[in-house]
């Protein structure tokens, strides 16, 4: 899917008012606890955000995750006085069989692109608008030439 196609679908999602949440883990969190644990932190934040916007605070919320390796993941809303466990459905290629997950992929990718466009203005020498933060050859060369910044994971050698 092209960025232009994603933008059209993203606008449609916004216009429908479908509830969703996007949450990030900071670079510092990823460096401190690792990418997997940081992923769980972000999931907890997203789930908690959805719960706080629910009319019925005890409605069943399931987290649908594209990736079977997360099938035993335990996620709970810790913002409430009592933790509410979320049902976790994790399957490989779930974005190909679930419209909800496919739309979530559009939201996540669009969020990443918007974030990288903003960071590209601060750090244009890294080409973040083009590489979206992925360690492409050009990005690795920029790191080798300019070094790591505060937005780079210090624990992961991209050069």
TrEMBL record:
InterPro entries: RNase_HII/HIII_dom, RNaseH-like_sf, RNaseH_sf. Pfam families: RNase_HII. PROSITE patterns: RNASE_H_2 (PS51975). Residues 1-159 form the RNase H type-2 domain. GO terms for molecular function: nucleic acid binding; RNA-DNA hybrid ribonuclease activity. This is RNase H type-2 domain-containing protein. The lineage of its organism: unclassified sequences, metagenomes, ecological metagenomes.
């Amino acid at each position: 899917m092209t960025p232009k196609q994603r933008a059209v679908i993203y606008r449609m999602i916004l216009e429908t008012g479908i509830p969703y949440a996007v949450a990030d883990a900071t670079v510092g969190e990823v460096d401190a606890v690792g990418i997997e644990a940081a992923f769980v932190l972000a999931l907890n934040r997203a789930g908690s955000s959805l719960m706080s916007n629910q009319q019925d605070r005890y409605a069943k919320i399931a987290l649908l995750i594209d990736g079977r390796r997360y099938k035993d993941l335990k996620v709970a809303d810790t913002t409430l006085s009592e933790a509410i466990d979320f049902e976790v459905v994790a399957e490989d290629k779930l974005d190909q069989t679930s419209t909800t997950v496919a739309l979530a992929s559009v939201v996540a990718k669009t969020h990443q692109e918007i974030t990288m466009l903003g960071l590209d203005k601060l750090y244009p020498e890294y080409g973040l608008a083009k590489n979206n933060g992925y360690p492409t050859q050009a990005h690795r060369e920029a790191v080798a030439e300019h070094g790591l910044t505060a937005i780079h994971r210090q624990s992961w050698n991209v050069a």
